[in-house]
Amino acid sequence: MAEVEAAVSADLSPAGVAATVHAAQAAHGALIDDDGIVLYAGTNVLSPAAAAANRPALSTRPSMGWPGDKYQVGLDHLDTLEVLAPLLVADLVEGTHAEVRLQSATLANLAVYTAFARPGDTIAVLPEAAGGHASHHARGAPAVRGLTVVDLPYDPRRLDVDHARLPAFLHAHRPRIVVIGASVMLFPHDVAAVRAACDEVGAILLYDASHVAGLVAAKAFQRPLHEGAHVLTFSTYKSFGGPPGGCVVTRSADLAERVSTVAYPGLLANYDAGRLGALAVTAAELATHGPAYASACLANARALAEALHDNGFDVVRRDAEFTRSHHVAVDAHHLGGGDRAGRLLGAAGVYLSGIGLPWQDAGEGMRGLRIGTQEITRRGFTPADQPAVAALVRRALLDGEAPERVRADAVALRHAVNAR
Ligand SMILES: *Cc1c(COP(=O)(O)O)cnc(C)c1O
Fold first, then answer.
1. Whole-number Å distance between alpha carbons of 417 and 391
2. Distance between CA atoms of 66 and 382, rounded to whole angstroms?
3. Cα of 73 to ligand 1 centre, how many Å?
4. 69 alpha carbon to ligand 1 midpoint, in Å?
5. Mutate to test the pocket of ligand 1, among 135, 179, 236 (most ligand atoms within 8 A of CB)
6. pTM of whole model > 0.85?
7. Where does 262-402 have alpha helices with state H?
């Protein structure tokens, strides 16, 4: 930070700052958008139609309250967006009510905790090493609500909640909310089994579909609300492929009203109406093209997992299967861990991140590498390209080739796919 501060402080006039900002934005765009092979699981690019519907100028127009009953006047046209976007989003994930004003899934989760748990209550979540997100854990949003957090029993072999131990666990801890859905999701959860156990203790079942929302929209992974989750939350900018934001969807008018009352006036005033148009267009596109997009993401993930395995990587699997989603995970223990491997790959023009794995030792750091195929799918990569992607990863991580040399070929591959 001190180095950057020294570099940017040379000219802090408006023109100087604008020049610094434009240069940073252009360089970022060239590195990531033009040249990068982005395998980072928690990102995506907007479709052209969604980008065209994005209106940053609306972001400074607060619109507070229910459509038709606003604090401000003159907002009838924003009411159109506020009714349209939730309608499309709720329908897409098989719910009846959607709250789309929260600006992130972290805030969406906080809204659910606030609506259904009180300070001092307990919630039960997936362990961090099994992909439980910071917004599920004591260092994140639950602490803001004063909640106690306990880890659900987990079966590393099945990569799911340990269903045999779950009922007794819930009886012992009596959580108000049980949270499933994680930051790495290779296989669906057995939602119905978790819901049955929740019903025994009166817990609300929250499924956080932040990573898999695009697949859920396409009914290509699992159907959490149909299978028994009370509430679905998700990020709108990962596999969903929309502008950044968080959604809360349910099939219950009562639960929905409680969440929306927390959203406003509890957590938000201006919620940023500028992104609602892009969200609505993204949802409409997923309703039409979602199945094709999702099956392309899944096919790329399976092909990349196979190719990484063929190149000697320890690809995480359940029985003989690598993945049923757009995610792939690699055990990077012998590569010096996920963080180190991720940094090396970044220098080689391939962008992804580390992730915890359920069998890592306490204090080991992130043992895995996490891959998502949603962005390369949108960029036009097909299963036939995955051996070439895996070869770049092998050269950087197993062959010890100089990152700049690998990067030149990564950029060339990206440009070759663009040119098709
Ligand atoms: C990314 C993620 C979030 C947070 O999403 P934001 O919209 O960035 O706040 C929440 N939960 C899970 C499981 C995630 O992976």
1. 16
2. 44
3. 34
4. 31
5. 135
6. yes
7. 276-310, 338-347, 374-378, 386-397
Sequential pLDDT tens for the chain (420 residues): 999 999 999 999 999 999 999 999 999 999 999 999 999 999 999 999 999 999 999 999 999 999 999 999 999 999 999 999 999 999 999 999 999 999 999 999 999 999 999 999 999 999 999 999 999 999 999 999 999 999 999 999 999 999 999 999 999 999 999 999 999 999 999 999 999 999 999 999 999 999 999 999 999 999 999 999 999 999 999 999 999 999 999 999 999 999 999 999 999 999 999 999 999 999 999 999 999 999 999 999 999 999 999 999 999 999 999 999 999 999 999 999 999 999 999 999 999 999 999 999 988 999 999 999 999 999 999 999 999 999 999 999 999 999 999 999 999 999 999 999
Domains of the chain plus CATH, in order, are 51-283 (3.40.640.10), 290-418 (3.90.1150.10)
Pocket of ligand 1 (CB under 6 A): 42, 104-106, 133, 135, 181-183, 208, 210-211, 235, 246
Give nearest CA residue, ligand 1 atom 5: 105
DSSP string, 359-373: TPPTT----EEEEE-
User: Taking phi first (over 0 means left), then psi (-120 to 50 degrees means alpha), and beta for anything else, what does residue 363 get?
Assistant: left
Residue 329 has a CB neighbour count (10 Å cut-off) of 27
Report in angstroms the alpha-carbon separations of 44 from 37, 334, 349, 352: 12, 29, 17, 12
> Any idea what the Cα angle at residue 354 is, between residues 347 and 155, rounded to 5°?
160
- Single-letter residue type at 199: D
Which of ligand 1's atoms lies nearest the C-alpha of 136? 11
Token digits of residue 322: 């690598």
Q: Give kind and range of the element (H or E) at residue 66.
A: strand 65-66
**Distance of alpha carbon 167 from alpha carbon 172, whole angstroms:** 9
Q: Which of 54, 56, 74, 55 is nearest to 64 (CA)?
A: 74
Cα–Cα dist 333/243, whole Å? 35
**Residues 6 or more apart in contact with residue 113 via CB below 8 angstroms:** 123, 141, 142, 145, 147, 177
Tell me the angle at which helices 386-397 and 403-418 cross, rounded to the nearest 10 degrees.
170
Please give the number of the atom of ligand 1 that sits closest to the Cα of 246: 7
